[in-house]
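WARN no homologs supplied; continuing
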Amino acid sequence: MSVRRTNVLLITSDQQHWNTLGQYNPEIQTPHLDRLAESGTTFSRAYCPNPTCTPTRASIITGQYPSQHGAYSLGTKLLESRHTVGEDFLQAGYRTSLIGKAHFQPLRESEEFSSLESYPILQDLDFWSEFDETFYGFEHIELARNHTDEAHVGQHYAIWLENKGCKNWRDYFRSPTGNNDTQRRKWLIPEEYHYNTWIAERTNSLLSQYHEAGDNFFLWSSFFDPHPKYLVPEPWDSMYDPNQITVPSLVSGEHVKNPPHFQMTQEIKPDFSAYRESGQGIHGCHSHLHNRDELAKDIAIYYGMVSMMDHYIGQIVNHLDALGLAENTLIVFTSDHGHFYGHHGLTAKGPFHYEDLIRVPMIVRQPGRVPAGKTSTALQTLVDYAPTFLSAADIKIPYSMTGKDQTGVWYNYDDTLKRDHVMVENRHEPTTIHLKTYIEDRYKITVYYNQSYGELFDLETDPEELHNLWDDPNSVELKSELIARFLSAQLGAEPLPMPRISGA
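OK structure emitted
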């Protein structure tokens, strides 16, 4: 039996706005996450390192920024040679597993870069039934790739559906894999076959297995919701009344002083061709005009997706507690990035580093170590997760990780470890969509590659981010100071995998 050490259970959602928790927003019900917060600490200023899936998820397991680990955008791949936190846990005798969404690799592969998450292997169920290799430091994986009814369904989720007796599972998914392209807002799949059910069931099975064997574990339970499209099975589809929901909206004139691509989103047919360098699609570079009533219906479903996910997260936490694992298990809940549902006239995601997109929900719990019922405004970034997980388990942090150990902040014993800034990167195109945001307690500044425009917001006086001070004549000195601190932060984040061991 392993020595009783701290386990780590990471629970993530996908594209969840930080304000979609009941503790913040009375219009939404998340009783299980609220209860998790009551027994732990909520961090209200947590940020993703990149507002898209692959870069942030790769940062979580490498402890590096996307510009450092190389998976800098959607459609890129985290190379198998990159060191991950799972490898450190394995070396320390832990069991490591990932259930749900990985998205470390793209849906297409090239001759130079293979991808286990690409077609056709994505849907080769025989391959995944026999797959037993370590995947980025996870010795056990059970994966899926689809959001709601996407045709990307396959891998272990499809195998589970068939094993559950759902032989007609293709009836609930879009072509060409499935044969149902008509579902809108209500997903016809029975709840018992939903991927939330699968994730909770398989996570709990592993928790039981590890408990019975006396194994320490690092387990990532990775949910797909509430990532659009907006689709959820009954009864969750009718849980919220669109007429009772607050719909965020554009404030007239707020984009006038922003970079040009902001205002272009409010055009009927904007021409973003000048921004397309790679020939690939650019998230967010399209018209964001929408019908208010239809958006309200979408938000109602989005909230339903969050509440359903909350229910199954509750099943996982309750099971862990019933096994008696609470006190020596560090639970962290967060999302890979945020989401627009009308904020600033925007929907989904894109190169718009408002708090709505780059700020994420974050709850940490470990009874007896993490303060209960506390809300902290300490700046957090998901880049710090890997070194902090290792530190909590008393495992040496590798030199390659540029994230900072936050155990002192999470456990509330060392305020000197609090960050004075976080960084968010976005390099969707080589030059045209290439930006970085530096965030302090009060100010945030966004700098664009080879461009004279940018963004500067005072979050204390302008928490809604309506007044861009970049070109404000009264903010010239402030902008200069923030750019200098931004450059200093860039220098401080450089990876140094080799320590200096000699004077010469």
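The chain has a mean pLDDT of 96.
OK
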